[in-house]
Structures are given as C-alpha cells and as structure tokens.
Amino acid sequence: MTRRTGGRARDAVVTGIGLCLPGSGAPVFTADDLWNVASTGTSCLVKNGVYYGSVDLPDKTFDERVPGIPEFFSRHYTDAHRFGLVSLAQACTDAGLEVQHDLQEAAILVGRGGVDANIDSYLAVLKADPATYPVADALEMFVAAEQAVTPSDVALVQGALTRSKGANYTISCGCASSALQIGNAQRLIAAGEVDVAVVTGVDVFSATLIRNIQRLLSGAQRAYDAMRSQDMPGLLPSFDALMRPYDRRAECINHGEGSATIVMESREHAFGRDARPYGQVLSQATTRDGLASPLASDESGKALVCAVRRCLGDTWEIDQVPYIHGGSDGNVVVTAFEANAIRELYGPASSDLLMTSQEGCFGHNGAPAGCIGVALTLLMMNHGQVCPTANCEQPAEELTFDPVPGTAPRRLDFDHALSFNYQVGGVKSAILLGSPDV
How far is residue 57's CA from residue 264's CA, in Å, rounded to a whole number? Predict the structure, then answer.
C-alpha cells in the first residue's frame, strides 16, 4: 500500500473514545480503563443465577460526568439514557471537544439493539386508566414516555445535550447496530456532509428476563433429555456457565449492558484543531446470508467473505491485514462461519492470522459491540499489541486462526485491521481500520 503523507482531508479519523461498561470495582469509562481490562483478558462478569456484566452507575457519578441536565428530564432517564450520555461526554472530553458548544453541526448517530430499558415506561402508559390516573402525575408520565418508549430514546437526549442541528438518528440492527452507524459516519464525512460525527452504541438487557429464559430452557432441556436417544444431538447449551469465545468448551453466551461512543472527524477538521487521532475508519460493508429463516446463519461464511472483499475493494489486499477483531460471543455457530470465512480469505496463511474477541470481558452487550470493536482495535494498533481472547484457554480444534489464548497480549506491529459484527438472521458487518498515517 502506498502511504499518503498527511492523508486526505476527507479521511475519517477517530479522535475520541468514551465508555460506560462493566468494570472490576468501578465502571470502565476511559480508553485507558478499557485497555487495562482487555489487555489482560480480565472478565468483569458476575454470576447471580446467570453470568451478567452490569454497570454500577450511582446518581452522583452520573451527575458528575454529565452535569447541567434539568432534573425535570433526567429523573425520567432509563439506564440506556444514562449510559449513553456518560459515554458521549467521556468521548468528547477525550477528543478535546466541549459537548454543548463544539457539536452543534455534528451528526449524532446511535445504535440500539434491545428495548429492555423501554419496557417499564411503555407498560406504564399502556396500563394507565385516564379516568382514574392522577392529573398531577400525568405530565410526569408523558415526559417519561416521550423520552423512553422508542428505540430512538438515546439519540433524542444526546441531540438535546449537544444542541446539534445535524443528522440525528438511530439504527436498530441488533449487535451490528453501532457498526452500521460507524459506516454511515464515515460516508457522511467522506461526502463532505459533516466534519464531526459522534457514534454511540448502547443497550441494556434485563437480567431478570435472562434468568427466566434460563429456567424455561432448562425445563425444555429436561423434556428433551427424557425422550432423547443416543443418536440425537444435544438440544440446548448451558446458560449459567462462563462464555468462552474460541475455546473448545464454548457452550453459551453471557449478556452485559453499557455504552460505547467514538468521535469521528474529517482529517482536515481534526488536524485544524491539533486533535490526536487514534486511527481511521477506511470503509465498512454490510451483507446478509440470504436465508429464509430469520434466526438461521450460513456456516459457510460466504456473506462475511463478501463483506470483507467489499471493504478491501481495489485499494487494499487481505495480506495487509494481520489482525481481525472477531465478533464471537461464545456461540459455536459464529465460530464455525468465522473459521470458514478466514480459511477462504487467507488460504494457507490463515494460521498466522491473529483474531481475538473481548466479549468475555464485558458480556455480549448488543449495540455497543461495533464501537467497542473499533476502539479496542485502534488501541491495539497504537500499543503494538493484540489483546488476548478473554476466557479462551483451550482453543477449539476447528479454528483456522490464532485466537491468542490466555491473559497476556501478543506483540504485533500493524497498520490495518478488520472488525466484525453480526446480527441474528445472517447480517454481517466488516469495518476496515487503519493507523493515522496510512
């Protein structure tokens, strides 16, 4: 690849990283916090019936990190609002931008996969009887409902906080949601429509719901086992074990909650204010397996191969990419199509590829995954080290790549990488990343 001195003005560079994720003792807020957890393969999951990654965000901490919000609105915020605002504020601080003054022309883009945080507000309105509901409480319910009954909830309050007059919308595409918004941000910047785009992925999953699902599935498992013969396969994985992406013992997914935000700018805008770029988003592509089932996934990996090749285009070659941030959540189906895709893309050289997943650190948190993948990959690029796959100790035999098992990072100097994300139903997203000066 030919290096471009100084790059092009409309390159999309990442200048800010902000988080609100599960941590060990305190939430993960900064890029340094993220690195300290991921580079050591630390799992922040806690078992309470099921393993879950929860964020402990007291009101005092929220108020300190996002000051000045009228209590009339903030008292009706769900955890999704709170997490998303905290990660946005931290990303702007990291980028050297003032939230309420420097983003008025910025695009504020949000990815949301789940609606668990919205259910209480929705049900409150649904069950309220206008004939008997206290008039004094009606306005409170209205404000809560307007802010929280739709998946565009976080974009609504982020747009208000930033006073943005630019693009402000939400994409809901499961665990690929913020990855698609990163692609949209890169295209908006490249087209000259905006100079700054702030992308947030945020989701909250109900631990109570997950525990109930586990109980329901346990009952189904017992019924199946009672009729199962030796030639019949096992039906359901364990939902109370620790998730182990790329490990031979992988059998389950652990969920988590939280938010991740990245600030993207045109190179010209970032350099004009002496901002420090972590790296750049070169391209993003989305494909689907094309299957009739809304729950199935093609294990051949062909759609993922197509997404990668669209990212590379005629400008880059796959042998320039020695590291991939994988999207494995401990699901053996995901491992299968990733392994097959890597075999097709790299051929005999696939065994030299480093491909890791850090979902075991924070849990499978849905929409934040795209932003986390970009943030972590660029941090690895800057440190010259690849983080290990959290909770992977015994790599599965079918892997066609090196998952960096254990708890120590692996040294690697690299200027290009890919980051993968998926949605149930066969959606595949690939993001091509580069160091600041490629």
Answer: 26
